[in-house]
Amino acid sequence: MTTMLTNPAESPIKIVPTRGGVTSPCTDTAMHGIWRKIRRPFRYPSCRSCRWEVYDVNQAGCLKCGRHHFCHANSVDSTCPLVTCDDRTRVCLITGHVLSEVRHADNEFYDTVSLAEKPRVTHDISGEVHAIVASFLMGDRAKRCREHENAKQYNKLSLHLYRQVRRFKLGNGKHIPCICQLLASAVQQERYWRFIGEASQELVTQCACNITSCILKLQATSGRIPHGTRLQEMVCGMLYMLKHGLVFRDQTLLSCIPEIDKCLPHENKIEAYFGISSKVICMTENEVKLAFRETYQH
Questions:
Q1: Model's pTM, two decimal places?
Q2: Comparing C-alpha atoms, which of 221, 231, 227, 206 is closest to residue 284?
Q3: At a CB cut-off of 8 Å and minimum separation 6, what does 2 contact?
Q4: pLDDT for 91-114, tens place per residue?
Q5: Dihedrals φ, ψ of 70, to 5°?
Q6: Where are the alpha helices (DSSP H) in 97-139?
Q7: Which of 10, 111, 206, 245 is buried most, with the most CB atoms less than 10 Å from its CB?
């Protein structure tokens, strides 16, 4: 039985099957050794940022230093950088290999077991919500966002004012200009000016209390509280909902705080400064409205 190896310049290794589709047995180390012989010489003996090439289902090699990455079959021995998908499967970021795991649902095998109803546990999320709100309104990223966006507005206003002064000088060179009139003309050149203000500690506390109250009301309807990244995204979406509030059938579910509009950047800027997609705002609003609508209508 023979094995034929192809040696393309920029393509993964292919093992051509022989004798009815059965390939010759080869260990992981030997497979990587074959890959190294094809891809060598390597530029570096070792590197920090590897450029991986996947040549097997659970194996990859670095094109810079020849490093070997192998995905183990279980999560105990795994050394891969993993990411959790929506269906709770864990996948290697390098090879895309899915770890083999057995997951059991909470409602399995209930036909032969008598269970008592679990008491509902209310988690204290006020401190976590307050920290997230403070980071969005008073944190380092918020400060950097406020400085950059306001600097853009000031530069735009300076440019319009310079044009107004230059136009006045060309038409009325012998007269003294009125700075107030020129500044007013410069402001009128733009329909919408958005300068981001600095939030106070009282505003942060007020927003955090309203968002916490709304999330606890959601817990009473759905029975669960978001955690981690999902909680951060929900708080971000509710911050923008505070500009108009949320009222359903004469019941205030989220108070209206108009002052928050002056302290938040535009929706399309949060991904650049905070790393959160702007779609989160619309998704959170739809999720909250749907949950309350289903609860109060039924």
A1: 0.51
A2: 231
A3: 18
A4: 898 888 888 777 666 555 555 544
A5: -130, 130
A6: 126-138
A7: 206
